């Protein structure tokens, strides 16, 4: 288990024909595939239009978890048209799901996340204020007759977070991290859930961006950035009575190049040993363990085969390693401990997928919740009893999707112009690829969907956005360009300083691959994305103004200088690595000039293709000014742009009515640009908070409803 508290948010908040197949050793190889001759093959009828509400409305159930004692199931489900917490005894769930009841009754944005504590019936849940990401926390005893949440942290401008693990010996005690004293750094407090009293546990005057706790909830390490952007881990030296930290001393230095992989993975049962994901001297890293007091005595527990380690599964009581997952094309689980092999093998027989996640009751490891993941179906969930070896199907995340005709997602490898290998995913309209080969009858309009981060990645699996695009008639290409995580130290660091440089070249290379393989029509490629993906869309229309047919930018930065200068205060501890990844520090002349040269705003006058920009007014990461300033530049040059602002949203859109509004307008925009199908706009825009700041192809229909023309 990972008991690590990261105090600094990450910048969030992605192919004829060569088909990826596997060699006998499991490694992907390329195989020539003959394209389908569209002139001799009858095309099936179009798939039925899937309503936007089916794809983007709230899930039926999400974030399902067991209480610590394994007696109660909690999950998020709609109430008041937003996600709230519902609960049901596990015995009742296996008989009749309809007896579940809501225990929170929020409106507007709903519950963002919740966790069970070790106190029977006690949950903690969080919500920010209209997207400002200053998380507020409440506690709620679901066993009380009066369901009244009590505030744990709710102060304006304060970002609160919950610290794990909880203390099994003192279930009434939890720890919270608050940046109230200094907006840059989080101090840690002990809170008594019964009395409500709190006291300071650690005053973060050292300037740590992250802290590491052991299994007993004791602070062992803190880490902060050095001038190069690497992490300096420091060890806490406690007094003999364990009441105070006497001093801190350097424990380990992790280079800037290694820190994307190297981090603490957990502690042994008695906390005498520490587990690490470790990239020192290795591209994919390893999972290793060493005595806490003797870091040189390392034992490698697992060496990944195809990619970085995606996750490690530890026993919750003895903290032994049970299994490891890698995620290259798809998640693959490798059993390490034989005590769970029979369980894993049984689970693999339940569904037509071997990709599943496991959660369990913190105090009862024999009770598992297992979630199976697909690319063309919603997630399905089972309750599994390890003692009886019985698995019971519970429900899907969204039942209405079970009856829909949905597209498949195909992993493919694409070479860059400098011979790197990118893992990409191609998804196609069902009618263009009825056999699911990953090759259409003929070239299609295509959406290049760019992931955020940029050090995030695209995954194989179900995506409402991808299904939306393919159902409307577009091929969808998601590309893990250099700088994406999961593919090794070298590939991750190859993205440093390459915003609007080689990272953009990768996107062009992937698009050209799709053109060459007769997947994409060369004059019908749209580029879209959120956060870094929004920036990539702006780069696409400014740095390569003739390549794309149109672009959609959602909460993307346009000016890298102002982006860096207005980061949230609590990002300050990660400033050095942030500017090194982007490629320049605006506090220096050379750095400022570099950032200007990689900013779409600098070249706004080059834009000649349709552009849709959508922005949350309360975005703390990419401020509204990032969108405002490029819109002003476009107006100055008489370049049309459609600009949507949501006053009650932040870095992305959470309110269901706003999601519906955005997707309705974006769908019509793409139809105008690429010629795909669209569902007529009804009252989505009226029901949402959208403010249309600039009209570049927007009008109203006979019912006074905004549409894109």
UniProtKB/TrEMBL annotation:
Keyword check for Methyltransferase: no
GO BP term (any one): proteolysis
Xref: PANTHER family: DIPEPTIDYL PEPTIDASE FAMILY MEMBER 6 (PTHR42776:SF27), SERINE PEPTIDASE S9 FAMILY MEMBER (PTHR42776)
InterPro entries: AB_hydrolase_fold (IPR029058), Peptidase_S9_cat (IPR001375)
Official protein name in the record: Peptidase S9 prolyl oligopeptidase catalytic domain-containing protein
Coiled-coil segments on the chain, per record: none
Species this chain originates from: Plectus sambesii
Chain ranges of the Peptidase S9 prolyl oligopeptidase catalytic domain: 460-676
């Amino acid at each position: 288990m990972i008991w690590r508290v990261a105090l600094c948010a990450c910048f969030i908040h992605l192919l004829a024909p060569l088909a990826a197949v596997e060699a006998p050793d499991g490694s992907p190889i390329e195989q020539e595939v003959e394209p389908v001759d569209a002139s001799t093959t009858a095309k099936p009828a179009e798939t039925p239009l899937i309503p936007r509400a089916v794809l983007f409305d709230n899930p039926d159930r999400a974030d399902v978890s067991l209480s610590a004692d394994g007696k109660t199931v909690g999950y998020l489900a709609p109430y008041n048209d937003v996600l709230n917490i519902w609960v049901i005894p596990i015995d009742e769930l296996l008989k009749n799901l309809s007896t579940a009841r809501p225990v929170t009754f929020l409106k507007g944005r709903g519950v963002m996340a919740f966790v069970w504590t070790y106190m029977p019936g006690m949950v903690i849940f969080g919500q920010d204020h209209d997207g400002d990401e200053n998380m507020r926390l409440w506690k709620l005893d679901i066993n009380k007759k009066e369901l009244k949440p009590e505030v744990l942290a709710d102060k304006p401008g304060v970002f609160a977070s919950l610290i794990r693990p909880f203390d099994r010996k003192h279930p009434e005690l939890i720890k919270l991290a608050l940046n109230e004293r200094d907006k840059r750094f989080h101090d840690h407090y002990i809170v008594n859930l019964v009395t409500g009293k709190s006291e300071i546990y650690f005053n973060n005057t050292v300037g740590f961006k992250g802290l590491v706790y052991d299994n007993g909830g004791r602070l062992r390490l803190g880490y902060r950035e050095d001038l190069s952007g690497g992490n300096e881990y420091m060890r806490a030296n406690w007094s003999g009575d364990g009441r105070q930290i006497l001093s801190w001393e350097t424990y380990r230095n992790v280079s800037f190049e290694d820190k994307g992989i190297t981090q603490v993975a957990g502690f042994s049962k008695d906390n005498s040993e520490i587990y690490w994901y470790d990239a020192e001297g290795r591209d994919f890293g390893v999972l290793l363990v060493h005595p806490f007091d003797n870091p040189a005595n390392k034992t490698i527990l697992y060496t990944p085969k195809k990619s970085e380690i995606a996750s490690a599964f530890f026993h919750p009581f003895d903290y032994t390693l049970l299994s490891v997952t890698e995620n290259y094309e798809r998640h693959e689980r490798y059993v390490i401990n034989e005590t769970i092999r029979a369980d894993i093998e049984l689970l693999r027989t339940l569904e037509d997928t071997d990709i599943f996640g496991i959660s369990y009751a913190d105090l009862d490891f024999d009770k598992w919740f297992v979630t199976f993941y697909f690319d063309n179906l919603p997630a399905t969930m089972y309750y599994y009893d390890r003692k009886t070896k019985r698995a019971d199907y519970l429900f899907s995340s969204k039942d209405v999707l079970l009856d829909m005709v949905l597209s498949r997602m195909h992993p493919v490898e694409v070479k860059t112009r400098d011979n790197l290998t990118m893992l990409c995913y191609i998804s196609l309209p069902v009618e263009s690829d009825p056999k699911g080969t990953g090759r259409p009858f003929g070239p299609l309009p295509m959406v290049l969907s760019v992931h955020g981060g940029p050090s995030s990645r695209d995954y194989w699996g179900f995506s409402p956005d991808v299904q939306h695009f393919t159902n409307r008639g577009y091929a969808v290409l998601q590309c893990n360009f250099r700088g994406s995580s999961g593919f090794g130290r070298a590939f991750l660091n190859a993205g440093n300083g390459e915003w609007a440089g080689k990272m953009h070249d990768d996107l062009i290379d992937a698009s050209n691959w799709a053109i060459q393989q007769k997947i994409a029509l060369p004059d019908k490629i749209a580029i879209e994305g959120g956060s870094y993906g929004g920036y990539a869309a702006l780069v696409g229309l400014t740095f390569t103004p003739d390549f794309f047919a149109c672009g959609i930018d959602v909460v993307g930065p346009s000016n890298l200088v102002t982006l860096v200068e207005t980061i949230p205060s609590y990002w300050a501890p990660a400033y050095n690595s942030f500017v090194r990844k982007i490629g320049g520090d605006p506090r220096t002349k050379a750095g400022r000039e570099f950032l200007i040269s990689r900013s779409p705003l600098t070249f706004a006058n080059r834009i000649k293709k349709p552009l849709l920009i959508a922005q949350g007014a309360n975005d703390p990461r990419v401020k509204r000014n990032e969108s405002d300033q490029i819109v002003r530049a476009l107006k100055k040059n008489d370049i049309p742009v459609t600009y949507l602002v949501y006053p009650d949203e932040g870095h992305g859109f959470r309110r269901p009515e706003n999601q519906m509004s955005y997707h309705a307008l974006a769908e019509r925009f793409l139809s105008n640009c690429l010629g795909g199908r669209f569902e007529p706009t009804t009252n989505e825009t009226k029901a949402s908070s959208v403010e249309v700041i600039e009209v570049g192809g927007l009008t109203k229909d006979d019912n006074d409803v905004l549409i894109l023309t």
